[in-house]
Amino acid sequence: MRNLIIGLSLTAVFVAAALISFLWTPFDVTKFDIPNKLQAPGGAHIFGTDQFGRDIFSMIMVGARTSIAVAVVAVGIGMALGVPLGLAAAARRNTWADELIMRGNDLVFAFPSLVIAIMMTAVFGASALNAIIAIGIFNIPVFARLTRSAALSLWQRDYVMSARVAGKGPVLISVEHILPNITNLLIVQGTIQFSLGILAEAALSYIGLGAQPPLPSWGRMLAESQTLISLAPHLALFPGFAIVLTVLGLNLAGDGLRDLLDPKLREVRT
Amino acid sequence: MLRFALLRLRSLLLALFVASLVIFAMIELVPGDPASFMLGINAREDTINALREELGLNLPVWQRYTSWVGGMLTGDFGTSYTYRTPVTEILIERLWVSLPLAIYALTLTILIAFPAGIYAASKRGSLTDLTVMGATQLGVAVPNFWFAMLAVLVFAISLRWFPSGGFPGWDAGLYPALRALTLPAIALALPQASILTRIMRSSLLDTLSEDYIRTARAKGLTRGQALRRHALRNALVPVLTIIGLQFSFLLAGAIIIENVFFLPGLGRLVFQAISQRDLIVVESVVMLLVFAVILVNFLVELTYGFVDPQLRRGR
Amino acid sequence: MSLLNIRNLSLSIHGTPILKDVSFSIEEGQIHGLIGESGSGKSMTAYAAMQLLPYGSVCSGEITLNGRDVLNSSESELCQMRGNHVGMVFQEPMTALNPVQTIGQQVAETILIHEPDTSRTEATTRAAQALARCELPQDRFPLSRYPFEMSGGQKQRVVIAMAIALQPKLLIADEPTTALDVTTQAQILTLLERLVREDGMGMLLITHDLAVVSDVADHITIMRRGEVVEAAPTAQLFAELKHPYTQALFKASTHQPERDDQTHDTPLLSVRNVIRDYALPRKALFAPQEYFRALKGVSFDLHHGESLGLVGESGCGKSTLTHAILGLEETQGGTIELDGQPVFTNHKPNRAVRRRMQVVFQDPYSSFNPRHKVARLVAEPFHLHDNPPTGSAREDAVAHALTAVGLSPDDANKYIHEFSGGQRQRIAIARALILRPDLILLDEAVSALDVSIRAQILDLLAELSDTLNLSYLFISHDLSVVRSITDRVLVMKAGEIVEQGETEAVFTNPQHSYTKALIDAAPTLPKGPRHAA
To answer: Mean of the pLDDT values across residues C455-477?
Structure first.
């Protein structure tokens, strides 16, 4: 319960920062202010300024947008395609369709995700959109596998048998009886993939293959800070903290949700 | 056991075949003509034609595919456009950095995760357990390249314990080489160790709640004895799976860390090759990495056979 | 002094009281039956004696085992006691053994833990002896076997061998036969009794089944809701049945629902030469397809208004037959017809026929989607109608069905978790009734229920059959239940029907050797006192 509260609060802070940034930021992140460059944290610029005099705090607020947007859409892609595939594989278990879906998943897993993401952005050009697609594709097998294994055990339940006796087909059963009973699992996995998406977006942007300027991004802020790190370590610290706290918040929320939604896991034995 | 291994081997070959098709198709997807893509927009017509000839782009698709696969089977990955040297040579040279780095990082991962995970599980709910779990939450959340930057700042620039980047080569001696790989290995290992610790702990807790642990306790085993003799081996299967995945991740996912530390490994090679549009190198490296992942998964599945007698007895 | 002496034992887990003031004692060489329905605290009493309680348990009172004050012993003293002075056998043999160790290693471990000076060879020899005593001789069951290579009954023998390897003074057996088939059940009970008598052990035999203990126990203690309600020597207990709960338990165990005979001679369901093959999972993508024949030409008739029993042990094909009759899976040969109409036509299930059949499953806890309200659950079979009733007509139908099974129409707006196991089984019956079918398949429908609840459900079924002119196919492994509620019975073994006939005739004069074995193995209750019978 404590995990859930801390996690949700941290997540809420960053979502709020992202939303507020649309309306207001302490400073304009698109304007250079060279006289005030590389100011230490404190004063008017509470997190300091970068080599162009931009306010780090404002940039982190705006960067939250990119991180959250990329991660949300990537999880959306993974769920939208992975869950139906998993449901279908479970409904047609031990058939060629199931085999095909699962082998396809294995294949995606066998590709080094980062390398493929890099390759995709290289072939189709570096952009936030391609980063989203690359991250999203690797979410599909995660959700497909989870859905299939959870659905398989539900297919053994007598209530599914009753639905079959009532003449219901696999699609209707999947929608009425399977899906509602695995939403908890999907929510928990969703938060975990969300946090992984934020890490992946940061990594891609860090090597210059994610969000492109002028779209601010935490990963690129870190990349730009690298050459100045001994001169102005605060440039590297604050975007890093932003990533760590968001990911930590999401993971804690995921753990908390799992404990809350799945009473079985709370049972304790000697 | 042999039958099991052969069955797995067959699906390994099938996976490799499909993977090669996918990689080939992706390169085919490059917008426009690969030759002009590789040479850039300012290239002269005759250079482009020369490259087309060299790459065999005038041949039909299936012939290009078979000659690519056939080449790889005989150890010939073609010639790099930018380096003008056989890709095989470059790959071997780069593997000598990436492979030791991955093994180094994986060793660190296991050395941290096993004791931490086992201890946390055996002292479930204690202060130590909570501390370990808190630390792993943090470890999972820290991006490894950020940790690498901070580590360079502290241990290389301020304390000067380790070089801040570069690789002296194995010819310079074991110690300088390992020293150069230490910070990158730690940066790679920390998040992985956090993940593995959590898996180890939860897998152990799962097995500790099995009926046969109660049976063992009823025989008079202490909690610790039951954990060591009965829970550990049964808890190992999910842990092995994750270790397999992690090894492939460490091999392939080192791209970013290799960039932070300017290490001449596979990751840096593929990153440079992409920016230089050297598609021959790109497809070779990706195929090699996919092969490594599939091979490691195969080896992990073989080790299941040693853990699980049911597989060993060939059922 | 008693071997095990429990005085005023109270137990709570995470603050929830589980046991209240439990007292009883076991003498050396005595078999002590501990009986109760689920939630009576009988198993927890045993775990308290072993001090293998769940996390968060608090005990008070006094437990003396073989002269040792258990509640005030250190963990290392307790470890010395467990396995050495007291052995334990559990309910679920399938999961009680470590899957990655050989049976020899696991039995030898008991010896090596308590006598660390023993050489490995000697421990192995003694393990082999213990297994042989449990009727697992070395020539057929070598020590190098793994648990997955053994049946449930054989695994239970390994567990027993582990428990008796050091010839403890006390053996605790927690529902040791509940998970096993009738014939295996009888063999395990005989084995336990023999071992106890040979070694002069005391045994605490925990079970929910009065019949199981009535043959073997010297003394019986009956528990209910964490308290002891009656304790007496076995013969005396059955002769007197002093406590009302004991009487109720006894009556429920031998319950005979009142039924009218309405059987007509016209067949309702007719099954002819039905064959069902299952495709076994492929071992690899292109491996040849292998099949398992689950039904080998099954034929029988079920008459209008009849209650037909189908008995057999696990894996005999009972469930496969149910699925085939319900039209859930197509058969590979033979015909299934209801009133002359086939269940399958052109590889498609026949909806008109399926409307006339419904089913009630065993497990009241997995039979309902926890996210739906009772109204929706009960109305689900309406899906078989082309024009299902809507609005108030639908509500009326649900209310009617709920009333028929003794529930209130208001229950329609509740979720399933608000009901007990017995109530859930009533809801399952209401769901089966809503289409006003002719035939209901009862697939182990009362097997998961406590005896007192089971008696009520059996009464309900008998009453419904009389008023609604229902026919039943009553599938069960429990012979006493089948005997009490069916007109005719089919005995099934390995996908074939080996015997069929009038229930009483089959039970009193079985023809097939398998039927005889089943009936001999089934535990029976003594006649009981004249006033209770």
So the answer is: 92
Parent domain of C184:
4-253
The pLDDT value recorded for residue A270 is: 30
SS3 B284: helix
Contact A224, A205 (CB under 8 A): no
C-alpha separations of C414 from C75, C363, C418 in Å? 47, 19, 7
Q: Give the pair of three-digit tokens for residue A171.
A: 């699609």
Establish if A165 touches chain C: CB-CB under 8 angstroms.
yes
Strand-strand pairing, C57-65 and C227-233 = unpaired
d(CA A237, CA A46): 13
Instruction: Note whether B1 contacts C: Cβ–Cβ < 8 A.
Output: no
Write down the ipTM of this complex.
0.85
Residue C182 — φ and ψ, nearest 5°?
-55, -50
From A122, which residue of chain B is nearest by alpha-carbon distance?
A: B274
- Residue B30 in tokens: 């490059």
Q: Which domains does chain A have, with CATH numbers?
A: 2-15+55-269 (1.10.3720.10)
Structure tokens at C359: 């089913």
The residue from B73, B102, B118 where one domain ends is B73
Closest Cβ–Cβ partner in A103, A159, A270 for C369? A159
The CATH number of residue C239's host domain is: 3.40.50.300
**Is residue B225 domain-shared with residue B128, that is, in the same domain?**
yes
CB within 8 Å of C19: residues ≥ 6 apart: C9, C10, C11, C41, C44, C45, C48, C226, C227
Q: Rounded to two decimals, what is the model's pTM?
A: 0.85
Sheet holding C267-279, edge to edge: C291-303, C267-279, C333-338, C341-342
Same domain, B119 and B259: yes
Of A41-55, A124-138, C176-190, C334-348, the least confident = A41-55
Q: How many CB atoms lie within 10 A of CB B307?
A: 17
Question: Are B262 and B301 in the same domain?
Answer: yes
Average pLDDT for chain C: 90
Structural domains counted in chain C:
1
What burial class does residue C140 get, using C-beta atoms within 10 Å of its C-beta: 0-12 exposed, 13-18 middle, 19+ buried? exposed
Closest by Cα among A145, A150, A158, A93 to A264: A150
Tell me which H or E stretch contains C503: helix C503-508
Over the stretch B86-123, which tens digit does the pLDDT of each residue have?
889 999 999 999 999 999 999 999 999 999 999 999 98
Quick check: is B198 in a domain? Answer: yes
Q: pLDDT digit string (tens) for C163-217? A: 999 999 999 999 998 888 888 999 999 999 999 999 999 999 999 888 888 888 9
Work out the minimum CA distance from A260 to partner chain C, whole angstroms.
17
Contact A174, A236 (CB under 8 A): no
Q: Which chain C residues contact residue B315 at CB under 8 A? A: 148
Quote the CA–CA distance of B9 and B16 in Å, as a whole number: 11
| Position B79 in a domain | no
